Amino acid sequence: MSEYTGVRGTVWFRALTGQASPMPGDPKSVLTADAPLGNDHARFLCVVPDPQARFPCARHGEVGLEEAFTLATRVREVIEDDKNTTKRPIIAIVDVKSQAYGRREETAAIFLAAAAAADAYGSARLAGHPVITFVVGHALSGAFLTHGYQANRILAFDDPGVMIHAMHKEAAARVTRRSVDELEKLAKEITPMSYDIRDYAKLGLLYKMLQVENPEKPSDQVIRNVQDELVGAIADARRGPVDLRNRLESKGALEMRKASLLVRTRLEAQWLED
Amino acid sequence: MSDKGYNANFINRQSFIELDARERATALFDAGTSRELLGPFDRVESPWLPMQGVTPQADDGCVVMKGKITGQAAVVVALEGAFQGGSTGEVSGEKMTAALDLACADNEKGIPTSAVILLETGGVRLQEANLGLAAIAELMASILVLRKHAPVICLTAGTVGCFGGMSLAAGLASYVVMTREARLGMNGPEVIEQENGVEEFDSSDRALIWAIHGGEQRYATGLADALVDDDTPQVADAIRRFVSKGVPPAHRSSQVTLYRDRIEKLDTSRQWDPKEFRALWANGSNEEKR
Description:
Largest interface: A-B, 79 and 78 residues
Strand content of chain B: 5-15%
Largest sheet of chain A: 7 strands, mixed
CATH topology of chain B: 2-enoyl-CoA Hydratase, Chain A, domain 1
Mean pLDDT of chain B: 94
Strand order of the largest sheet of chain B: 1-2-3-4-5-6-7
CATH class of chain B: Alpha Beta
Distance between the termini of chain B: 17 Å
Structural class of chain B: alpha/beta
Structural class of chain A: alpha/beta
Strand content of chain A: 15-25%
CATH architecture of chain B: Alpha-Beta Complex
Largest sheet of chain B: 7 strands, mixed
CATH superfamily of chain B: 2-enoyl-CoA Hydratase, Chain A, domain 1
Helix content of chain B: 25-40%
Low-confidence stretches of chain A: none
Order of helices and strands of chain B: HEEEHEHEHEHHHEHHH
Number of strands of chain B: 7
CATH topology of the largest domain in chain A: 2-enoyl-CoA Hydratase, Chain A, domain 1
Oligomer: heterodimer
CATH architecture of the largest domain in chain A: Alpha-Beta Complex
Number of helices of chain B: 10
CATH class of the largest domain in chain A: Alpha Beta
Number of domains of chain A: 2
Radius of gyration of chain B: 18 Å
Shape of chain B: globular
Mean pLDDT of chain A: 95
Radius of gyration of chain A: 19 Å
């Protein structure tokens, strides 16, 4: 696990909104704020660790039941508010280690909570809100599906502290019956298995990688550059369709997702054969 | 429905669970109306498994069929739990998403087309890690679009159950149909035990596992819309019923206030007895109420 989990999220939330607090009535683990971004007034959301969280398995920055439903609430609020007006951008700042692994979570259907958050983000995108995900640290498995993966555009730092993956190394090694060393060696050869953000970028799922120095202590100039990049991503999202086809039409996908593209072409041809 | 108790005529039952993915999908259609798309003879396989010395399968463990259910156009996508645990790879994931997108396009053209997804899966296939995760995110996006036009029905029959990222796809479905043998949850007991210890979840406690993730509990707490016996005609009947019902007035995953309030009311200082939890969430939002 990264020692940065949670730190970067808070740092960047503060850098972009000028504050770092939850909205009234929300758990401390979900930061929500509205702040100017270019010509827009964007809504920013971030999940951070709360060592006193009500649910014991969600005290280290995991996305649990409360986090997921709070995200869903705060995203739906924007959809509702902007029903008849300009669709504000929604910015998900992502630094999440995992979903919450707990018995309480399973009993109370964390799968539904996670789906509710993804539903809210996806519905916002479909309603015309530019949904931009900004990965500043970890974006792992179910936590990323819940918070970030429904965005029109995904940006990430080109930095070793950034990791986007389906499962953290130790667990993936256990499940596939390999040592962490073996897993890392294999991950170097099989691009989708890699833990390196530069390999992830090859898959064509990212809109952009951002070069920054010292992401834990950004200078004013670095913050301004990031804001410009976010504004650019918002404009690009507004120009494009509201679905996720850009991911499969990207240059990276043409190279790395040939099988996906083949599936789509052949399935469509056979579908129409009636 | 089976909430009246087990079918007394169980000896004559035709097990659904014993069927493979292809047989399951076929059984849900009006007889003689289905045809498979991108089947095993098309040999669109995982490009990533052979690179790791794992034998791929000619359909990548995902069966797509198009046909009619109660006379209406439908697509059924069935995951084969016997291949790599039903895990989502690049190809199997894209087959699901593409099938749902084609159903969506037909709806937009004025041909009402429902979708049934048969989820028997542990989630992302770790040998294809990031492409599996991305595929699930894209599938979820496609479910959100399709379910505006036509119901997306999730059927989890067992015995693999539905876990990991794919449980979020189940969470987005218009309706969830389960058997008593099926389980639905985000994290399996083994994963929880590994991450947070045996005190948090004893993965050898079969009774506990079923009391939390099992179809009976999910139905009793309003998280599944139908509980059916392991009986093919009964399963097919439930699917027909939901196809006829059409799009629900409110999807479960959009009922944020209801569920947020429920979570807020829970006493988190201790573990709950699944039976006591059942009393708290009884008949929450299953089909009759919605």
